[in-house]
Specification:
The protein has 241 residues and is an alpha/beta fold. It has helices spanning 2-12, 30-40, 49-52, 55-64, 74-83, 102-109, 184-190, 237-240; strands at residues 18-21, 43-46, 69-72, 92-95, 114-119, 129-134, 144-145, 149-154, 167-173, 191-193, 202-212, 218-223, 228-230, 233-235. The chain is globular and about 55 Å long. It starts with a helix and ends with a helix.
Length: 241
């Protein structure tokens, strides 16, 4: 509820909108595509699995159904652009699941006035931060936390880092999960006590590196480990090795 209320405010959705749901139900961000339109009085159009993976079919669906809002990974947006798709200028374009490449952002901003860059791990309930990237403000950051969410950038000793210094990103607030089911060891490693919050509160150690910019926005810099994202899925090369 906290996530959906924050998303209703920005990027925003209302009864005039039609959102295209393209994400597999096994991917947490699908929840936003299903529940946000329903809570906002908007219309939701479900793309078939085959259509979601086919640029021509997806482009046709967007045009035929008059889609005004769509959330997808950078891979999907790149697939559409490579096909030659022209985004409707009024499209509310949400991008997340993996880092947004600068070249892709430039191509999309040539067609739409704004891209909403979304960031958040599943452990903190889908999205934890957002930023509107525009032609006037094209810097690709993850912006600021959504409502009732706290973000800390800490050094190896657990102390806050100054502006411009790289730190590991920790997230606290009402979106935090209780832990991993039947994995007490992993829960203890990742869901750690929050020394900056109320007594007994916890924060999630993301393993992501970031820094504060002078204006207070958070600049994502990559992973502290070797984890990579492939079409939104977390891959641990060490486990494969």
């Amino acid at each position: 509820l906290n996530l959906l209320d924050s998303m209703q405010q920005a990027p925003g959705l209302d009864a005039r909108d039609t959102m295209l749901a393209v994400t597999s139900l096994s991917f947490d961000i699908a929840a936003l595509e299903l529940y946000l339109p329903l809570l906002s009085g908007a219309k939701v159009v479900l793309a078939s699995r085959s259509a979601a993976a086919d640029a021509q079919a997806l482009a046709t669906l967007i045009g035929r159904e008059g889609i005004t809002a769509m959330q997808a990974t950078p891979s999907t947006w790149q697939m559409l652009l490579s096909y030659g798709w022209q985004a409707p200028a009024s499209l509310k374009l949400l991008c997340g699941g993996e880092a947004l490449p600068e070249a892709l952002a430039r191509k999309l901003l040539a067609q739409v006035p704004c891209i909403w860059n979304l960031y958040g791990p599943t452990e903190t309930t889908i999205w934890s931060a957002r930023r509107a990237i525009t032609r006037e403000a094209p810097a690709i950051t993850i912006g600021r936390p959504i409502g009732n969410t706290r973000m800390y950038l800490l050094d190896a000793a657990g102390h806050p880092v100054p502006v411009g210094v790289t730190g590991e990103l920790y997230i606290g607030g009402v979106g935090l999960a209780r832990g991993y089911l039947n994995r007490a060891d992993l829960s203890a490693e990742r869901f750690v006590p929050d020394p900056f919050g109320e007594a007994g509160s916890r924060m999630y150690r993301t393993g992501d590196l970031a820094r504060y910019l002078a204006d207070g926005e958070i600049d994502y810099l990559g992973r502290a480990d070797h984890q990579v994202k492939v079409r939104g899925f977390r891959i641990e090369p060490g486990e494969i090795e």
